[in-house]
Queue: 4 jobs
Job 1
Amino acid sequence: MTGGRRSRVRGAAPVVGLVALVVVLAACTDDTPNALDPQGDDAKVLADTWWYLFAVATAVFVIVAGLIGVALGRRRGGADESDGPTTIEPARTTARRDHAVIAVGGVAVPAVILAITGVIAVGVTAARLEEGPDPLVVHVTGRDWFWDVSYPESGVVTANEIHVPVGRQVRVELDSADVIHSFWVPQLAGKVDLIPGQTNTLRFTADAPGTYRGQCAEYCGIQHAHMAFHVVAQTPEDFAAWLEARRSPPPAPPPGSPEARGREAFLGLSCAGCHRIAGTTADGEVGPDLSDVGSRSFLGAGTLPNTPANLADWMRDAQAIKPGSNMPPIDMTDEQVASVVAYLESLP
Amino acid sequence: MTTIDERDDRPGSPGEVLDPQLEADLEEAFSEPPGIIGFITTVDHKRVGMRYIVTAFVFFFIAGIEALVMRTQLAQPEAEVVGASAYNSLFTMHGTTMIFLFNTPVLAGFANYLLPLQLGARDMAFPRLNAFSYWVFLGSGVFMYSSFLFGAVPDGGWFAYVPLTGSTYSPGLALDFWALGVIFVGISTTVGAINFIVTIFKQRAPGMTANRMPIFVWSVLAMAVMVIFAVPAVTLSAALLEADRLGGTGFFVPEAGGSTLLYQHLFWFWGHPEVYILLLPAVGMMSTIIPVFARRRLAGYVWVVSALVGIAFISFGVWVHHMFATGMPPMAMALFSAVSLVVVLPSGIQFFAWIATMWDGHIRWSTPMLFSVGFLIIFLIGGLTGAMVAVLPFDTQVTDSYFIVAHFHYVLNGAVVFPIFGALYFWLPKMTGRMLSERLGKASFWTMAIGFNLTFFPMHVLGLMGMPRRVYTYQDGYGWGTLNLAVTIGGFLFGLGTLLTVIAIWRSRRHGAPAGPDPWGAATLEWSTTSPPPDWNFAATPVVTSRDPMWEPVLEEAVSGDDDATAMLGPEGAEARRMVVTTGVAAVPETSSPIPDESYAPFVAGVGLTVLFAGLLVWTGVVAVIGVVVVLAAIVRWTWRTEEAG
């Protein structure tokens, strides 16, 4: 009879799966926003919590699946033959044993495991609430389908790319201008929703310089899939320089240059109605702030790498790249496209 | 000690030939008009139950096709199989269909079919209400899917969070189809639950005390009580959403002083109990099937019953764990985190009851048992990841990621659909009189089991690797491509496995071996009558003396007495179209009640409701009023006839 063997095979399959999980996680690419490759204090605590949960769950799985396998395979002789006497009525001792098995295996042991887990959960929750002495405050507003970013202390405004210094706690204040979004940078912190009508808070401290991908995690409409952002963690010096460069508006390009023609075109076309560029008359609020778009790594909220060619494609027909987004196709001559690209890419 | 073999020699054994005169009388009392008229007017719980199951499976395959289209789109990065808009409609309709139009009604179908038979009764307490609840289910399903004809398919996700689903961000009819459809189908679920509860309390065979009720009956009772308390919350959330959309009320609009989180509280106050509303009947099926194939009584009956009832209560205290990322006060959430861990305990009890049952059983590896073992392993994984996501801080990493998609498919697909497939192989022979192919059954099981795990296990990893749910595409370079391809292959394999069962069912119509009354040597009363059962289920009411009446040496049948309470017990007094009513706890015969005749009223009332909801959808008073008038007329006719018959 193969029943016992089968059950052991079945029990083994998910164990193989668990091993595969570890292997796959180890084989992530450098760009994978892997929650188990934490680069910040909050994500580190949560990854530790995961490894505890994973260890306990694996142990419980192996034990319970093993018991199921043994229970199924114990009596080889009787299986598959529907004739032959079979016990229906458990003996009195069996009934007592049933009670003991259920009371210990089904109640007592799980209660202990769950109690320990509960204490850990509350402890971690309390620890995550602690705010450091001098956090950097960043305000993030979710919009369909990009992220407004501002630094209240310095008045710097940007979008879709959040620069932070390593080693200093960051307090992200989150709200939404339209529907519910969720702020998730798996390598830095657990996610927190952006909900219209309330301001939520998320805290983390980045450990190492690097660029960490985040993405909206709450379904927010047609372009939920293209609502990513990046957190750029920098050394305190680099961060200070980055912030300083944005405190004052970017200088106007020299007259007659392609950049100057681009600026003129930008302000004259419909662009300025939706986008803001510090120090210009462009003060639209429908699309992301472009004051430092030239220095950002991505376009369209993480949709495309920021290259002049991609920017040109994006301006001509963003609907082909991010259908349903609020960026309409712009009717521009090739010359206009080239100069506006030159202008935008020149922004710090 | 009793053995299965001794059992077959007892008097009153299954399939006993009836006295021809009695049979003729019963035939006459229970005859139904043939053809389409009989189809529309029937109130027979068996016909209604099978109809529920067939209709629900149609929706199952529709939802499955939706899932496979999604998986094709996600098989590789930046694929262009379907666009963003279509994808968003697909996942919305997949979830909505699976929850509202497959899982809930298919279990209601099994409960409809099995409850009276397991209770030793001739029909449900309210047979016409039963027919009505089916027509409402069908009407609401057609209503929601008619959105495809209007090009206004709901696309707000199956939990339709505001403000995305308000009129500002979702203009048009799509979300009206969803919200009204949810209210509509809730009527079916609620009247069905009322019917289950009354049937369980009033229609049990003499001697079937609460302490002897079959475990599936207990699970349906727990489910039905949960429905009564939970469904009003989702009805309210959908109704307020419609009020906001149509009437501009602003319940969920922050600028108008409303609250977006209010919607989430209302929705999940139903939404989490709903998980157990689906799960409980499924585990009840497992607690019925496992002892049959282990060939010993269920270990720890009282433990298992307590676990079912415990879940019914505790699951009302965990809804906030769906909202751990909403920024509520952390220590308030910690309370819900703790309760969410406690709700694991009743499942632990059931696991060890099943293990103890199998421990000294003699396992028969028939297809229903294979699906049961598959269920055990899958539910174990789903339960463990459930305990993980109950841990508040950890949940903030995985909620709304593919990890959570993996978790709830292990529970709602694995731990509910596997029992349902096991139940098909187990109970279809009772319903049709023909066995299903074991060969196809086993092939179907293994294909489904491998496909299932290949589909959903890698999703855990994808979630931890940062892939959010509900994205219609993803970019290359994040390491998500390979696993997504594996998931897609698994999805098709799973779909293939389900088709093998369809083939097995199709083939059994011609080639299935005759089942006989009791092909499995099972324990409950449905196996004491022929397969398929006669219209009257039981000529004489069985008398129950234990929890496993068919495993007693003798299954006694009641004889008629001369007072009202016992006149109907039979066989000689049983020929009328009446059924026995017993007391709620002790199941002592109390009186008898007429079984209503077949009637157009439930169908007409269902059609009237559909017209009413169509009127609300297009916001046209005249149409809505016509619907109301039709419903009222049908109800008047309905109650009128019942009194005449009484």
Job 2
Amino acid sequence: MLFNSIDFAIFLPVVFALYWWLNGRRAQQNVLINLASYLFYGWWDWRFLVLILFSTIVDYTIGLWLYRENHKKTKKILLWSSIAINLGLLGFFKYYNFFVDNFVSNFQFFGKHFEPSSLDILLPVGISFYTFQTLSYTIDIYRGKLKPTKNFVSFAAFVSFFPQLVAGPIERAANLLPQFQRDRVFDYNKSVDGLRQILWGLFKKMVIADNCAALVNEAFNDPSSEPGSKLLLIAILFVFQVYGDFSGYSDIAIGTARLFGFNLSQNFAFPLFSRDMPELWRRWHISLSSWFRDYLYVPMGGSKGGHIKKARNLMVLFLVMGVWHGSNWTFIVWGGINGLYILPKFLMNTHRKYLGTIAERKALPSFTEMFLMLRTWVLFGLSCVVIRAQSLEDAWLFLSRIFSSTFLIVPSASFSEKRLFFLIFLFLAVEWKGREGKHTLEKFMLSWKGYQRQVMYFVVFVLILTCAGGTQQFYYFQF
Amino acid sequence: MVDMRYFAKRVLGFLILAVLGYCVSTSLLVHFSPKTATYLFDQPWLKVNEKIAASKGIIASDTVVVGGSVANQILPFNDANYLTSVGAIRVAGNYLLIKNTLDRNPHIRTVIYMIAPIPLIRNLSQQRTHQYFVKPFYTFEHLDELNKHKDLVELLNKNDFLWFNLFVPFKLLSMDDFNYWDGKHSEGEILSKESYDWLVKMKALCEDRGVTFNLVSSPVPQYYWKENNECQIIKEQVKGTELETLFDRYFATMVLLEDSVTVKYGHMKEEYAIRNKERLRKEILSKLSNFNQLNASSKNEEAQ
């Protein structure tokens, strides 16, 4: 069930009404959340439910066992069992074909030909997200940072909570699980703010991302028909597409959770206004990068040690993040490029230069800040060409076209394109104005009068209805 | 729970007002200012809607031109008597444009239908029919006329939610779409049966009103006719039918273009079209005039 579908528009109010009808009956509310989440997830394919149930039972059992167990070696075995089972499932469903294809082509390289039985494996939606969520639960118990819950219903609700089940934010048990174990009270202001966040999330996804997608798809289908200058613009538009799509999803997820009295963690902190690549990565998909920081980068030694060790750790971090995103060499290369972008600043210890909000309490950025933002868009956009292209060869063709003599041709724009640029300009203006809040519309209209806010909501509502691009899946579902 | 009820009331109130506001404002806009609507919403059907609105206005000239997007490239798009839109509205859509115009402009003496061969070959079982034909033409105003055509009604009713399209606000929903593509082109006949039937109606409509009807070809890429020999097949297909003279004129006015100056769907490259539109328009109209003179003199000879 997609957030931007009629199904969800019916599902959400029904579940919301039932949930608050059960106000004060926490256990029943949790059961309802479980049922609703399984319905939401099973809407794609009911067979996916078997996997999520299996994952839930395994980690619930191992979590309890780990906590009771005093023997260090057994604890280690339990932890590695959980890791092996979770990553095994993820590896099988997500990476099986990738490994088989590479295995076959390596053999062909040495003159051996054989055809392994290929499996037509369906990638369960959101498996990369909930697998990481359950993994963090067992790892935190092993580290003694978390007590396991005995309440299976609460744990199952934590794993399958429908707003963030299929594309995050990847929640830590320490943040989300306790919220299932205490009473939720309806908070009017929180719910209104949740709706604001949902509205803006829908705008980002349906108006910005889906319209960008149409243009990006056309250009990537036939890059030779566009000049290099336009292709560079397309590469940047792809960044806007992915940002609108994924941060839009996160906004809808966080806003929906707020309607039910839950607080999810912030997943995007206005990364488009980053002044360099390290800042962008601190603000982009925060729940994933912090997961890898805590469970991979820091255990490897993090930023301790000499330059070589630091560089190794950083590159491993980005390469693994690339692999997490997809089972294709393009993702690995993309991870590598982003690691290399950050590496020099990291080694010179200037990667934490920009920690605060850009142009804080100022109406507009300075020229230098504008240049830095533009530079970040270009760098990130160029790296993202690699993941958008079907293969490394296609990416190379696209990039070499950008840096050809056609780069000097001034690109022409159709009426639809001009209209899209205008919408993007509006979108950036609103995002800029709201950049000091936790989400765009949180503080944006606080000083406005009630009717002015209503008019603004109405305008966004009409834009969503009339300017939305063709219905597209959320981009991050493929991960 | 008091808060909860207040919240539900506020949200519901906003939604009702927003939906009502959306319905009223968009309907007024599309009806009274179609050009602004096209500019604001940029949906394909609104460009056709502009032409429908123009067809319902007063036209100063005694000639009206309808046709497809290639014709658009060589005609002055904004002049009131040029009602050329896109091929995807098919002959049926152009018939409705002509009918609207003749109903309100009895002084019109000549109708020119300038169309490339591809839209004549295809029928309305296409992917773009919903956006280009159903949305602009499926209105209360055209309903009686459309309902007279059993095949058309049967086709359009494949969409269970067709009736939504009678109301402007639904048409403006960008996610509203329906694919009428049946997966096949008309086989065994080059000119589709649907185009044939509507052309017969178009001709009859003009004859009834005492209006000269000219079927004229917009410029066509060379490869299209040379390789497929479709020109000859269509000639054979209409031989001996009431459309024979109409198609004689159609082929006589055909201007062939170098393949290198055309792009997909037989459109001309933009720069080429801008540079040559004047010349091409004159060439086609002079061919039409020559044909009509020849035809008139041969008729005179026959009469004598």
Job 3
Amino acid sequence: MDFSKFTLIQIRDGIANKQFKSEDVVKFFIQKCKDNQNLNAMIEVYDDVLEKAQAVDKKIASGQKVGVLAGVPIAIKDNILYAGKKMGCASKLMQGYVAPYSATVVEKLLAEDAIIFGRTNMDEFAMGGSCEKTCYGACHNALNFEYVSGGSSGGSAVAVAAGLVPCALGTDTAGSIRQPASFNGVVGLKPTYGTVSRFGLVAFASSLDQCCPIAKTVEDCELVTKVISGKDPHDSTTIQNDLRCVQKSRYRLGVCKQVLEILKDSQCKDEFYALLEKLNEKFDIVQVDLPHMVNSLACYYILAPAEAASNLARFDGVKYANRPEGCTDLESVYVKSRSEGFGKEVKRRIMLGNFVLSSGFYDAYYNKAKRVQRLIKQEFKDAFKNCDAIVMPTTLGTAFKIGAKNTNPVEMYREDIFTVPANIAGLPAISVPYAEKSSLPLGVQFYCDECGDALMFEIAKQFEGGVK
Amino acid sequence: MEQIEHLEFLSKLKFSGEDREKFESEFKDIVAFVDEIKNLNLSGDLDKDEPIGLDELREDVPMQSMEREKVLSNAPKQKDGCYVTPLVVE
């Protein structure tokens, strides 16, 4: 059986109904990963997956109660801890690190009898939008080898799109799940901030980071999000988001005029306008105004580096992983370990973070960005008084060629223009494929109000079922 | 650039040779990019600081923390249950 064509729910149901075994499924995906190593999406398939699958099969055969993900293989991004397994953040500095405990998201998947299948490639410390800035080498797009996978959760998106695994977790700080999902023609989301615990994820920008699945369908993503969400005593920022919504017969979608303005010169303008025409049949369309949404990107490149500069201070050559030879005093342990261990993009962001926080600049940059963030949040809140969801493209265009944007960091940063507002405002947003251009996929996003995650899934399912 | 040296000190990083020149020029572009926020005109109530709410803290109950052995398991150098670094105090 070719399980690469199955959705997560089809695999789950097939195992539960004893049409096939988890062992068959896992064996299939192990082989599929071996056959597609050139994509560089999977860094490692864990060595105990067959054993774990057989254990679930035994449970099912003996009639024991099993979890809602029983026997389904799920991969995790290389910045998520799984006790006893390697985790490297795609960084030279972290190679050799073995997780001493499991992330809450991993514990929750295991509690539902999922098989944690392996780890996926990413941009180092989740900083990047192409999955080229990784110590494992660039990850390739699932549909065209010459093109980037997107990032930072590029490995997770490619693993799902290429059928190496039915679902993979990623993390999203500025669009790191939604952009690669869009580039590879699969579904990915970020939930309302706080919906999913960050305990056991390597922190990048703590006030913006969220972990969530990438899968083939909205329904698959919804199921896994429900499993991994919930209040966690280990993460004080988690909230109880009940993920239920009141259904309506017809939903109202907002189109932001500032988005249309940005789209004027973009590659996917025609496709997006054609989509709006089609959406009109099933949804009511209204225009919304988000005057400061365009400032989200610059706001992000102040707030995220500021938090990263703090969060990455822990990588000092004392507590984790690698310390180069020849360190003569404590200062040289810090400086040598970090200078030799971190890649260029990570260094750039640490320096930028320390710049915007440093004496004389803090008010003009960091403090001001926090105020702009509040303004953006308020504008979204007002916009949602008049619509159920806001629709916008996930990216300005399709995936680009490997190496095409490596010379200019600011150009790469602009990739996040439509994804980053969701992180800045703490809102849920999902990317669903809607069209193709030159045989590469394009994704559309649905943004909802805070804790409107269930409504977001509902609207995305309606879209997936009837408009595409 | 003096400022880059200061940031290197704060960041515990050191750039050298070609890398340094390239970094300096890219850094200028990035700062110019985020200057958009510095130059933005804001008015009204939002032009104030807002502290982070900390009203949902858990009860202060002691809990089991990670065992010492596990904490040290990823250290590049360790001895007798401690991290090893070059001499700090003479």
Job 4
Amino acid sequence: MAAASDPSDLLYEVLQRVGDGFVELRYHGKRTRSVMVEQGRVDQAKIAEHSGVGVRVLADGTWGFASTDRLESGAVLRAVDAARRAAVSSAAARRERVSALPSVSLARGRFDAPGYDELAARPVEEALQLVLDAEARARGASTAVQSARASYAEVFEEKAVVTSDGAKAWTRLVRPEFSISAVAQGGGELQRAQESVGSTGAWDCLFGRHSAEAFAERAAGSAVDLLTARYPEGGRKRVILSPALVGLLTHEAIGHTVEADFVASGSCAAGKLGKRVGSELVTLCDSGVSEYAAGAGGTLFVDDEGVPAGRTEIIRQGVLTSYLHDRESAAAAGVAPTGNARAWEYDDEPLIRMRNTYIEPGESDLDAMIAGIDDGLILDGPRNGQADANGEFMFGTARAWPIRNGKRGELMRGVNISGIAFDVLASVDAVSRDFLWDLGSGHCGKGQPAKVDAGGPWLSCQVLVGGRNG
Amino acid sequence: MSVPANAGATAARTWDPAAAEASLRDDCAALVSRAASSGADQAEAFGVTSESISVCFEKGDLKLTQVDESRSFGVRVLRDQRLGFASSNQAAPVGSVDDALALAALCPPDEHHVLPEPRPLPERPSLVTPGATRFAIEDAVAAARDMVAAVRALDPRLSLDRADLDVTRSSLALVSSTGIAAAESDASVSLSLFGMAIDGDDVGGFDVAADFVRDPAELPAAVAAAVERFAAAALGNLGAGAGESYTGPVLFAPAAFQAVFLSPLIGALNAQAIQRGRSALAGRLGESLGSDLLTVVDDPSDRGLGGAASFDREGQPALPTTLVEAGVLAQVLHNAYSARVDGTTSTGHAMGGSRSVPGIGPHALVVSPGTGGSPDDLRAALGRGLVIQRFSGTVDPASGDFSGVAKSARWVEDGREVRPVRETLLQGNAFELLGRLAALSSMSESTMGRHRVPWALVDGVAVTAG
């Protein structure tokens, strides 16, 4: 697969011809190769390209946005005109005009994530064979398995961000994902289990923890085991969340409430900077860097406004220390932008989004944490999740194990859990010394998707468990 | 191509759907011809072109106005019963044909891969109204500004996180080597309100109201209704407290009923899910779900719903299809692939855009109203228990198990809502509980402009309160 060449110079030349005012040009090339197999049959074998230039203009104190799928000077110039006209023709509706963005440190240069060239050179038939083999492995793992489905996708992204106030950055990265699910039948019912993994990097990151075959066996094994598993009882319980669920907690329950646009709307994090919002055991961060372990799925060097995407400490030892900002919200707050402006594709506007969100590891031993609980649950296997402005969150779990008198019991079916974000953080009484990125196959939805990752250690806290026998 | 020479003049010039369809058809035909000459046994090209105006308000002020034009193609080829697909938004994407053929060469053969033959398409009035072709940036900005102002004027406690108004004009065309050549255009204005109410330290839960119209003349009424729905839900969420745990009847508003019950039901009626062993309703066609109250029709002829269309993603006619009749499972959803597996014809439910191989799904679901009266009558019938307006959780399409949070939930005593509740979880199995459907309201509501669904009183739901 041929990579696009760096168009930064072309975009920079266009910028010299567009007149005064802030203009941001963002080339975003996206090429996807994907396959999906179910029951030994190929349902999807696809190569897709979606590339172009998004243009954002600040005119009359108002933002305008337009795009072109042609990487040519003339087309980009016309898009600049279109964006400017959109801004000007709607400026009368803007009550508070945006003043010029303050000068900040912007990225310049070339940024290459590892794995791009390696995956680009890897023949697509290897991915197809991997998926065929994994699906067959899951389907053949037990006679109870009725159905299996495996998919693999790799998304090659190239971005050039050039702004009239100095950004000129070219980045390349690749994000592979692998997913496998199995449906088992028994006792007149179906149970489905899924394993998925995603990373920024090559297959050494993607399959560093488990091979595709191992994922297949785990999915099949879980589906079969869940057939005979019971539901936990509902109620408020002390639980130990796996690193994947800690990631979901940090993303859904905390991360969204500290996005500066949500804060401005009055999220439960508004007005809490400098205040205690959780146990002193909790330090929570969001980073464009893959901290602690390589290959986190939300890794990026530069955000879509040209701001370097570093590490932001949101909560330090239980005290709220920062929100997540784009350039406009940072300017309004009088702080530096945090590199969280992200757009899904070239024709999307940048929004404030998370990247890799996590709780830092603590000092506890997982076995000791289990031993310290008389009546509780261990929860693992993230499903979907959502959070509300008032801090109420919900997310699904795939598997549960009861803890009775410090002992881990037999597998139970997963449940949905809920809580009020900062109440749950305040209830944290132990954080393990482990660390894992484990949400790399996930996407965040906030008007447009975003590739994110999340993780952390094992964590003991109190949540509301939705049981079958309420 | 996103922005042509006259880009930005989206507001000024009039969109010509006939010209757009003709251009797309020509390009699709050229791609199919290229595929045939390159060795494809069968080929299909699907093209979409659209222009849009998006106006976004955040925190009550204009955030961004965006104009876009886009054009993309998806090419599906079959060679020796092997599948290949490629898509591109680049001009003249002949490379997609080569990519698709290269993939096809790698895939194992599957005797069920086949492109459908042409069938007569229903003749229906155009989905494009004259007003929609002329709706300009200034119109969109004014309508969005009025919508935001209406919320602001209603109650100072209302906090709009985001308000959007989007104008979309699109044309699509499908040409295949089996002789299908179909094209259609659509134009609509959609709106959404997303936010909450704040009263001092009391931050209410989020709620959302959304709708769409094809005729901009209907926009003021749609905006007024959405503002009223949003305000009622958001203000009603203030002061939420704990609910009560019980297992019993719950009253589901249309959006919640759709999420918890309709979604897995339609997923389980997907023919491929049945064929592949991941549907709990496999082998149950002709059987009753246990309650004769439920009738579900997929009706792509309903112009009031967003999914209205005259053909599906494979160019097959999109016709009204009764899926559940008086509680009895009547029909599964097929595309050409699943139909060939079962030795039947497609039901016209191939779904998807230009960037993927067609899947299977409904166009526009309509659940027949019942005889339960108004939502207030159903609250009276509930007597004591939970009313849920939205559901935020997990619904497993294979088993039907669901678990999640009741959003914008209210507690009912003596048949009347007495307080909002939060931190309340629901759990159950959708297929089992559809058999315990106790009543449906006598009227339906559009759910985000996509489906038409009544309120539903369902017994046997496990409710866990915090």
